[in-house]
Amino acid sequence: MHPALWVSKTGLSAMDTKMSTISNNLANVNTTGFKRDRAVFQDLLYQVNRQPGGMSTENSELPSGLQLGTGVRVVGTTKQFSQGNLEVTEQPLDMAVNGRGFLQVLLPDGQVAYTRDGQFQLNSDGDIVNPDGYTLEPNINVPENATNITIGKDGTVTAVVDDQAAPVNLGEITLVDFINPQGLQAIGNNLYKETNASGDPAEGEPGIGGLGTIEQGAIEASNVEVVEELVSMITTQRAYEMNSKVVSATDQMLQFITNNIG
Amino acid sequence: MDKALYIGMSGAKQNMLAQRAHANNLANVSTTGFKKDFAQARSMPVFGEHHPTRAYAMTERPGTDLSAGALMETGRKLDVAVEGDGWLAVQNQRGEEVFTRSGSLQIDVNGLVRNANGDMVMGNGGPVALPPFDNVQIGTDGTISIVPVGGPPDQLVEVDRLKLVNPPPAALEKGEDGYLRRKPDQALDGPEPPDGNMRVASGFLESSNVNAVEEMIANLQLSRQYEMQVKVMSTANENSEASARLLQNL
């Protein structure tokens, strides 16, 4: 069969993948703490059809050979961990990380997941939990009669209990950082898990050691830039169309030869 | 049997190969730093004992278009695009130093800087490794400076400098892995010397230099050429049918 068919097919499937990345970004334009993905393309291996420097006759050699590419593929999607805008919500348990670092939540299976989504609430036991009900790690329990919960920039959580003048320290929120955050595995629900590529989590107090500070009463918006995504969408669509044009032109060629010879 | 049938067949086959080269260019229209391949046809005369009328066609890749693609802003600090001439040096999986313009850099768990393909990016003293940092900055000459973890933001530490090279374009060819390298007959004794005059832009990536319209037109033209070769084949067929009929009527 015509080799260009397969080459264009790789182009079509790579553009398809890019389009799904873009649509996932756009779908999450309002997701708190969402980090956009970018599809990374790479050309596939080249095949040597005729070696450069091969002999064309006994006394002459070919100045250039024929090396043909086999198409394109998406080598991966990279998450862009740039800071999203901070939106002030005035909710006492909303927190945004201003700078590097991730908040930790405890999954039901006992593992720790990492997130930039700081929309926390209280559950019936008084624990601070994320929208899925997973407790913050380290766990912080707010007594029943506590008022005026304050989260400091360094993660200290205090509250006024029983209307006493001195606020009570309820615990410390810590942040973790990774040497290669792009290596984290996104598991959905705004959560990430560590992998071999991300490295081990380095835990620390917010605001120290390069970790960001915690801003109470704010959440981090998605870092998707709508205009950029729309422009990517247009270029991807056109590239897709042109690759499909090659497929149909190639098909017509094969049709032509079967109609005319045989 | 008329030899024109074989000539036509060789033409059609070489057209298919050329089309594949253009299809590959078009498939890589969104590949960062991709350099398009040229395709040209050469006539290969095969003169026997008879009239010198036979010349087969042969498709070849005379080279790669090294012109720069457009710069796309990404805002990511570890994305670098080479401005003007020059190449980033990376070490491929076979340990050879090869050149690329695709500068989407990543940092692996050991602090080594790798490109999107996972190959190590070379600095002036071997592969670039960065200690843990709060912030990183790549200067226009490829110097990488960082704010170490917990360090004051006003004290940047210079760590390494990306190896930027500028071999003569005529000495370069694209290898099977898609990276550029020196042609075997242009090879240097040692590693490629870094060139201090090269400039990079941080926060940008270089787009593919494929002109999509040009590739599509080339493909259309090759489609038509192919049809003409098929026409030669079918004419050769008709001729031989006609002579067969003549022989039957004898």
Task: Write up what this structure looks like.
Chain A has 262 residues and is α+β, with helices and mostly antiparallel strands. Chain A has two helices and 19 strands. Chain A is elongated and about 100 Å long. Chain A starts with a helix and ends with a helix. The relative contact order of chain A is 0.20. The mean pLDDT of chain A is 89. Chain B has 250 residues and is of the alpha+beta class. Chain B is 25% helix and 28% strand. Chain B has helices at 4-27, 212-249, and strands spanning 40-45, 55-60, 71-73, 80-83, 87-91, 97-100, 106-107, 113-114, 120-123, 126-127, 133-138, 143-148, 157-161, 164-165, 172-174, 180-182, 199-202, 204-206. In chain B, the strands form seven sheets. In chain B, strands 5, 6, 9, 10 and 14 form a five-stranded antiparallel β-sheet that branches. Chain B has a three-stranded antiparallel β-sheet with strand order 11-12-13, with no helix packed on it. A two-stranded antiparallel sheet of chain B has the order 1-2. In chain B, β15 and β16 form a beta hairpin. The longest helix of chain B is centred in the C-terminal third of the chain and has 38 residues, at 212-249. Chains A and B meet through α1, β1, β2, β3 and β4 of A and α1, β2, β7, β11 and α2 of B.
